[in-house]
Amino acid sequence: MSLIGKPVLYSYWRSSCSWRVRIALNLKEIPYDIKPISLIKGGGEQHSNEFREINPMEHVPALQIDGHTLIESLSIMYYLEETRPQRPLLPQDVYKRAKVREICDVIASGIQPLQNIGVLIYVGEEKKKEWAQHWITRGFRAVEKLLSSSAGKYSVGDELTLADCCLIPQVFNARRFQVDLRPYPIILRIDRELENHPAFRAAHPSNQPDCPPEATK
Questions:
Q1: Does residue 153 lie in a domain region?
Q2: Residue 113 pLDDT class (50, 70, 90 cuts)
Q3: Tens digits of per-residue pLDDT, 47-68?
Q4: What are the φ/ψ torsions at residue 63 (nearest 5 degrees)?
Q5: Residue 12 clears pLDDT 70, i.e. is over it
Q6: What is the residue range of 99's domain?
Q7: CATH code for position 191
Q8: Residues 106, 189: one domain?
Q9: 143 and 78 in one domain?
């Protein structure tokens, strides 16, 4: 099968990793198709032999673009930035660019992986909420501190960046696990600023083709 044509994003509606890539694609106004991959149905479609050929790590997202298949959300977003520099999501200033990557890494490496579906299944039903709250709270303390010196209107200055693409899905996850967000006023302010932005709204889980009807009630 040829991979040339409209990009195809393998995505799960509530996956924050898929969500951040959807935001980046939307902000850059890159048309794409979504191929839903259920992380629950039949034990998880990500574990199928077919999908393992696409992503040997057996998780989402994966993006087929320009004749290539890319996995890992940050790698995908950096590729989009480098191959489609219009509507940039990394600042020109070298220090600010490093701050964007710093915030992305804290969220994508230090918070989200510790409360993804595979880890929570391993932790167990009784302890998963406490586990997720602990690691999100620990991570958000760090993010709030970083934002105190980097934020303007958004996470780094007054322009949208990849840091915002990573932050907003993580706020959703924090609410899902009933984390007290009152200690993080900068995070909350940025979340309010972006909740009705068209690119962010279009990427929201409730607007995905595989979102269960009951999740929108």
A1: yes
A2: confident
A3: 999 999 999 999 999 999 999 9
A4: -130, 125
A5: yes
A6: 92-199
A7: 1.20.1050.10
A8: yes
A9: no
